[in-house]
């Protein structure tokens, strides 16, 4: 492969700081949301996205010019960026919001990412995102970002093979293979890979990698929520089940519960 024929790819990976997946979620006393005074870490699906970006570079070698991670969150989100840098990303952007600010909604995040992508002097060829965040489980940001940019997208991808010379990406979506053109920076991926652990030497190196700090005001973005949360409560505790001797008894129990034979 001749170097002149290779398109050097700039990969963009949005990540999110979320309540750690191992923490038992509890509603806060005010019932305005969940208790956030617990351990946080990188959203696990975003870890998968960072891992895939690093794997693409390992496969393509010098064809990948840079991997840049970005997060939108309070000052503590800088720790999440450093984790991604230790995994192999080259640089990071932190769009910092106040600790007391409400969590940005998917559309606000998508608009912020679009603004960041459009200001990258060297351009962005591929955006790799986790399929969803485990806190709100919305799974909307990637699709909204693709719509705002007018880019193509491949969701729930289990495998991707990027050919920078031919400027295409061969994506396996569950059991379907789809060819995407990346000549106009037009792919958004979501993956299922086992992320690597950051080694101690890489953690130390990550401290020296550049992290650009920006505000929503600098980007001209308003993250004011469009939705209002009225009240958050825990679901009712499950009641133990019972046993029946036969189908007739089951139907009788269903009838007592107000469930007709048609629905049963």
TrEMBL record:
Recorded superkingdom: Eukaryota
Swiss-Prot/TrEMBL keywords: Electron transport, Mitochondrion, Transport
Main location: mitochondrion
Domain Electron transfer flavoprotein alpha/beta-subunit N-terminal: 31-223
GO biological process: amino acid catabolic process; fatty acid beta-oxidation using acyl-CoA dehydrogenase
Keyword Protein transport attached: no
Co-factor remark: Binds 1 FAD per dimer. Binds 1 AMP per subunit.
Subcellular location: Mitochondrion matrix
Co-factor requirement: FAD; AMP
Gene Ontology CC terms, in alphabetical order: mitochondrial matrix
Listed GO MF terms: electron transfer activity
Quaternary structure annotation from Swiss-Prot or TrEMBL: Heterodimer of an alpha and a beta subunit.
Purpose of the protein: The electron transfer flavoprotein serves as a specific electron acceptor for several dehydrogenases, including five acyl-CoA dehydrogenases, glutaryl-CoA and sarcosine dehydrogenase. It transfers the electrons to the main mitochondrial respiratory chain via ETF-ubiquinone oxidoreductase (ETF dehydrogenase).
Family that this chain belongs to: Belongs to the ETF beta-subunit/FixA family.
Name the record gives this protein: Probable electron transfer flavoprotein subunit beta
Species the sequence originates in: Rhizopogon vesiculosus
Taxonomic lineage of the native organism: Eukaryota, Fungi, Dikarya, Basidiomycota, Agaricomycotina
């Amino acid at each position: 492969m001749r170097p002149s024929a290779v398109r050097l790819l700039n990969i963009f990976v949005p990540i999110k700081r979320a309540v750690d997946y191992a923490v038992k979620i509890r509603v806060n006393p005010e019932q305005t949301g969940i208790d956030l005074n617990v351990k946080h870490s990188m959203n696990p699906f975003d870890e998968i996205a960072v891992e895939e970006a690093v794997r693409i570079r390992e496969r393509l070698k010098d064809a990948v010019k840079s991997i840049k991670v970005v997060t939108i969150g309070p000052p503590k989100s800088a720790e999440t960026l450093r984790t991604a840098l230790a995994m192999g990303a080259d640089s990071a952007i932190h769009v910092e919001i106040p600790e007391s600010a409400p969590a940005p909604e998917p559309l606000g995040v998508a608009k912020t990412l679009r603004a960041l992508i459009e200001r990258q002097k060297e351009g962005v060829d591929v955006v790799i995102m986790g399929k969803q965040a485990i806190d709100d489980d919305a799974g909307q940001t990637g699709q909204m970002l693709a719509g705002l940019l007018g880019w193509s997208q491949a969701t729930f991808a289990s495998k991707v093979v990027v050919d920078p010379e031919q400027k295409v990406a061969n994506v396996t979506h569950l059991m379907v293979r789809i060819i995407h053109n990346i000549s106009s920076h037009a792919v958004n991926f979501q993956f299922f890979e086992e992320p690597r652990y950051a080694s101690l030497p890489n953690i130390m190196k990550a401290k020296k990698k550049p992290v650009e700090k920006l505000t929503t005001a600098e980007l001209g973005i308003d993250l004011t929520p469009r939705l209002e949360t009225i009240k958050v409560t825990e679901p009712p505790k499950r009641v133990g089940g019972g046993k029946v001797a036969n189908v007739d008894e089951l139907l009788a129990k269903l009838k007592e519960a107000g469930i007709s034979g048609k629905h049963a």
